[in-house]
Amino acid sequence: MAKRLKFWGWGYEDDVVPDSEIRWMESTWAARFGVQGFDVTPTPKAEEISLPAPRVTPPASLASLCTTDHYERVLHSYSKSFPDIIRVYRRECPAPADVVALPRTEQDVIDLLDWCYRANAAVIPFGGGSSVVGGVAPPAEGSHSAAVSIDLRHLGRVLEIDAVSQSARIQAGTFGPSLEAQLKGAGLTLRHFPQSFKCSTLGGWIATRAGGHFATLYTHIDDLVESLRVVTPSGVLETRRLPGSGAGPSPDRLFIGSEGTLGIITEAWMRLRRRPTFRATASVRFADFYRGVDAVRALSQSGLYPTNCRILDAEEAQYNGLADGRFSVLVVGFESADHPVDAALKRALELCADHGGEAEASAGDDSHLEGAAGRWRERFMFLPFFKEHMAARCIFRDAYETAITWERFKDFHASIRDAGLNALRKATGRPGSVTCRFTHVYPDGPAPYLTFHGLSSSPERLMQDYWTVKSAASDAIIAGGGSITHHHAVGREHRRWYDRQRPELFARALRSAKQALDPKWLLNPGLLVDPETA
Ligand SMILES: Cc1cc2nc3c(=O)[nH]c(=O)nc-3n(C[C@H](O)[C@H](O)[C@H](O)COP(=O)(O)OP(=O)(O)OC[C@H]3O[C@@H](n4cnc5c(N)ncnc54)[C@H](O)[C@@H]3O)c2cc1C
């Protein structure tokens, strides 16, 4: 039997956090919040979550593609956002998926959409379900009669590789590890490694404009998409494979980031590269975070375009095991399939030294995962597994990922941090923590990622405390001129801030596109835009 994704947290059912790590987490957070220990809510079991009978029955012709299995319905009723994890731990399911459909071909997707249209059922495209913004949780309200989650996990193949142009035609439901494994034999790689790589899919990355491996240049999946095939209720659409085009607004760009509201992406031609063989990585300590930020700005404007360029403030560096809490740490690295990159690293370290940075360790070639950079990578991939254990202990954790131009960064960072710390104290009655790192940097500004931690006094308070802090931080992001999201997407949970960010005239244009492609507004109702009358 295939491994099942967890419905209550990150990863697969058999991904277990070792006791030693749990003890480390508990002692770190007990010290941080000044408490002796934590009451722990037990991990939920699927049978503890009661669901109403499905409101819709698939026709006989589609029955073999659909399931109402309890575990599958529960899994498809939540995303991986913190509010959804709180709901799971409360054993609450306010808006369950009625039916889960598992198409095996594009024609199945077409037939399923036809049926949902006839049945007036909301359609939720589902990749890996790793959305952290409520993107795959069915809507609680709306004029639809039921909710059908269309899970693309069986559309998981690399269909064609064009070694000359270095691109591949890949089905949308392909998970990260399988995608890379299928390309490996050709010596090629997509090199899109979001932290959620293991349990997320190509279609999900495209639908959410995911951010991946590269800290500079090819940051978003957008740049790696050559063409798309999309099934919409109004028909199937395929864009041309082109390395570039000046022919009007890009049809690809309409669907990239459309979060399943305009159609279901079934496959895409993706730009690949050769697997890197030359690497050089170093970590650099800064006594002052903002001097480190200046160094990162110099690097991002130098034309060197490091592959990795992620600075962590002192508290976050300590939490990641990179430093003792006195220093901010920059992890900087270069890679190439073609030429040595040591000279680029050398120049990057000179730029850092100009801003007071002290190189800790550097490594080339195969030892690239040693030292602080390696420790960061290990922790980075492990941290998501803590989230559900934190929720079980009434610790809430959330990340605010945004972007801002360099000249506004310092004030922007301070205002979000202050808003967060004040809200944490107001909500919980005790101090919390707000840390910052950069996930990506551009010549004109960084993408800061601020992580908040707070401790609620009881499971009953957790949701309210979470939203008090989330609202304060999100208000500060919008007031400061930033984006409500840099790469996690809008989903249900960023919607009210997204509405304040985007121009109203753009909302009208998007509404018209939605009306043309999804005339009954059944694809992911409530995401991105509502009908005129709402
Ligand atoms: C631990 C963790 C770490 C993360 N790290 C990152 C990160 O580093 N970078 C990053 O960008 N994001 C990150 N995320 C967020 C999430 O992984 C991304 O948004 C990812 O792109 C979602 O992919 P998925 O296949 O899981 O999509 P899902 O979560 O299943 O769906 C996301 C949205 O896209 C829609 N959708 C899915 N597939 C399709 C399709 N084929 N056609 C049309 N619409 C579709 C869904 O309806 C939904 O609205 C992280 C999440 C977690 C839990």
Account of the 3D structure:
By secondary structure, the protein is an alpha+beta fold. The chain has four domains: 46-51 and 58-151, Uridine Diphospho-n-acetylenolpyruvylglucosamine Reductase, domain 2; 158-274, Uridine Diphospho-n-acetylenolpyruvylglucosamine Reductase, domain 3 (2-Layer Sandwich), CATH 3.30.465.10; 278-384, Alpha-Beta Plaits (2-Layer Sandwich); 393-498, GMP Synthetase, Chain A, domain 3 (2-Layer Sandwich), CATH 3.30.300.330. The chain is built from 16 helices and 18 strands. It has helices spanning 19-33, 70-75, 82-89, 106-119, 176-184, 202-208, 251-255, 289-300, 314-319, 342-354, 371-382, 387-392, 406-428, 459-479, 495-501, 504-517, and strands at residues 66-67, 99-101, 121-126, 146-151, 158-162, 167-171, 188-189, 225-232, 235-238, 264-271, 273-274, 278-286, 308-312, 328-336, 358-364, 395-401, 433-442, 445-455. A five-stranded antiparallel β-sheet has the order 5-6-10-8-9. Strands 1-2-4-3 form a four-stranded mixed β-sheet, covered by helices on one side. A four-stranded antiparallel β-sheet has the order 13-14-12-15, with helices on both faces. A hairpin with a 2-residue loop joins β8 (225-232) and β9. α8 (289-300) crosses α10 and α13 (406-428) packs antiparallel against α14 (459-479). The longest helix is centred in the C-terminal third of the chain and has 23 residues, at 406-428. The protein is globular, with a radius of gyration of 23 Å. Residues 365-369 have low confidence and may be disordered. Bound molecules: flavin-adenine dinucleotide (FAD). Flavin-adenine dinucleotide binds at residues 10, 80, 124-132, 135-136, 152, 172, 194-196, 200-201, 203-205, 207-208, 210-211, 259-260, 264-265, 384, 487-489, 524.
